Amino acid sequence: MNLILKKFLQDPKNIGAVIESSDASAKKIGKLINNKSTKNIVEIGGGPGKLSKYIVDKNLTIVERDQDFSELLKKKYTDANIINGCGIEFLKNYKEKYGLLTSIPLIKKETKLDFVHIINEHLKNEQIEWFIILGYKYFNSFSDIKFKNHQRNFVFKNVPPAFIWHYY
């Protein structure tokens, strides 16, 4: 059984996805990130690391709160900084300039509000350069983020079909 699905069935309130993202989604996100000059990339909720696979020549930090996924990521991405912990708490203390990636399609309302608050604070401090989130919503659920621009990309080859929201 797929590890994400197994974890979801064990604890549906604390796992942000049901199945792993597709290669099509990961490649599209990788291309977006790799075309940016941003060197420090923070990925929140790395899961089994599907999206990280296509990020190259960047200082990648993956924050994953699930111990099993963290161990898996440490084995897969020896050049990345893997942190087993809460992404929100990590971002509160992060001081570098960075780009933010997350794939939490089933994000809880409270978590989303925390993300919006931190991202807006980091924007005000000119610390965050962009934010990319993979999700299932057609509508802009992060409209409270103060980035000047946003873009929505549809990925049909994903189960279920997904949207990549890119804020910059």
Q: How would you describe the overall organization of this protein?
A:
This protein has 168 residues and is of the alpha/beta class. 32% of the residues lie in helices and 24% in strands. It contains five helices and seven strands; from the N terminus they run ααββαβαβαβββ. The chain has a seven-stranded mixed beta sheet, with helices on both faces. Helix 3 (67-76) links the parallel strand 2 and strand 3 (81-84). The model has no long low-confidence stretch (mean pLDDT 90).
Features:
globular; single chain; 7 strands; 168 residues
Give a short summary of the structure.
The chain is an alpha/beta fold.
Q: Going across the biggest sheet, name each strand in turn.
A: 3-2-1-4-5-7-6
Q: Unreliable runs, pLDDT <50, ≥5 residues? A: none
Summing up helix and strand content along with how strands pair, one would put the structural category as alpha/beta
Strand content: 15-25%
Morphology call: globular
> Into which percent range does the helicity of residues fall?
25-40%
- N- to C-terminal distance: 37 Å
Radius of gyration: 15 Å
- Tally of helical segments: 5
Number of strands: 7
Q: What is the average per-residue confidence, as pLDDT, rounded to a whole number?
A: 90
String of helices and strands = HHEEHEHEHEEE
Largest sheet: 7 strands, mixed
